[in-house]
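Researcher: Structure prediction, please.
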Amino acid sequence: MADIIKTAMLYSTLIVTINAFVVILALIIKTH
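Model: Predicted structure follows.
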């Protein structure tokens, strides 16, 4: 059970990191 929670947390962190990266990339493209 703990492994499932750990995996879910890892995926959530990964998704948030990817979303932040995409937003920053979009802002950089917009400003140039």
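Model: Helices lie at 2-31.
Researcher: Thanks, that helps.
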